[in-house]
Design brief:
By secondary structure, the chain is of the alpha+beta class. The protein has 4 helices and 7 strands.
Length: 199
């Protein structure tokens, strides 16, 4: 098993233990990353280059990987923990008045583009709506819990040319209504900030 994947698995095990026991032991942070007190998340977080504005999903992943070893965009599995991260992101400077929030790492590998006639087929519509197709970039069997999505319209509420395969937490200033995952084009015009979870 690759070192990065082993580190990821160990972080998940610790996360499970903390959720089961309710413990809140401070996690040793590296660089300029921060442990979010009382969150119960066995990881640290760092918001990168907020002054440069939001970026696409690929750039967010690149930024996290280049700044910290074993770092990815946010991958918590619990809405309570996600709320802690939203509060942290606002405190760190992400504007509350727009759609841009922060990228999360869940991704759909399957394409679901429009047909050559510009119409979305029923088969591709079903792919866009299928939550089970969103998973870790490293393990297709590790998927976000259903309750982590913003509401029942997510994912797959667009029928146009946008094949929204990446995920983000958007609209930080409109909580709890918008708490949870939304799907977005990975490299499209809809941008979010690079908020890294450092294991």
């Amino acid at each position: 098993m690759a070192t990065s994947n082993l580190h990821f698995v160990l972080a998940l095990v610790v996360a499970s233990l903390i959720q089961d026991t309710g413990a809140d032991t401070a996690y040793p942070c590296r660089g300029n990353s921060t442990y979010i007190k009382n969150s119960g998340i066995p990881a640290c977080f760092a918001l990168l280059d907020v002054d440069e504005g939001p970026v696409n999903a690929s750039e967010a992943s690149r930024k996290c990987a280049s700044k910290f070893t074993n770092s990815e965009p946010v991958y918590v599995q619990d809405k309570r923990q996600l709320q802690f991260i939203v509060d942290f992101a606002i405190k760190e400077g992400i504007p509350e008045d727009g759609e841009a929030g922060f990228w999360t790492w869940w991704i759909r590998r399957e394409d679901a583009r429009l047909d050559s006639n510009g119409v979305l087929s029923q088969a591709n519509k079903a792919i866009r709506k299928n939550r089970d197709l969103f998973a870790s970039p490293y393990d297709k069997d590790y998927r976000p819990k259903p309750e982590l999505w913003r509401n029942e319209t997510q994912p797959g509420n667009t029928l146009d040319a946008r094949d929204e395969k990446c995920t983000a937490q958007s609209r930080l200033g409109k909580q709890p209504e918008y708490l949870g995952l939304d799907d977005y084009e990975c490299n499209g015009a809809q941008l979010h900030y690079a908020l890294c979870q450092v294991a």
